[in-house]
Specification:
With 117 residues, the protein is of the alpha+beta class. The protein has a single domain, classed as GTP Cyclohydrolase I, domain 2. The protein contains three helices and five strands. A five-stranded mixed beta sheet has the order 3-1-2-4-5.
């Protein structure tokens, strides 16, 4: 299976369960792996034959910057839903890092994989 990646998309949002996490936006880092068939795009050199990852990024940006999730798991699930709206994506893996969430750790993270139904 072919893959398209969006790596280290750095955004800010309200995320967390503690009161101090609910008042100020925090940094998160999103990584996506989208599995798809890129043969047609490779032959045609036409954007219509591939996944418009700029459009997907813009949709994720709107979701994240206006979100107020308690859990990064919920945010990851909703990002996966956005990506899978594009029927060319057969499977998506979403990883979200929350830097500084744990003392003495660079970040805490969650990774989910969802398939096109």
């Amino acid at each position: 299976m072919d893959k398209i990646f969006i790596r280290e998309l750095a955004l800010r949002c309200i995320i967390g369960i503690y009161p101090e996490e609910r008042s100020e936006k925090q940094d998160i880092v999103i990584n996506l792996e989208m599995q798809c068939d890129l043969r047609k795009a490779g032959r045609s050199d036409d954007l219509h034959d591939t996944i418009d990852y700029k459009s997907i990024k813009k949709s994720i940006l709107v979701l994240v910057e206006t979100s107020r999730y308690f859990l990064i798991e919920a945010l990851a699930e909703n990002i996966a839903d956005i990506v899978l709206k594009n029927k060319k994506v057969q499977q998506v893996t979403v990883m979200i890092d929350k830097p500084g969430a744990l003392r003495f750790a660079k970040s805490s993270a969650v990774e989910i994989t969802r398939i096109q139904i």
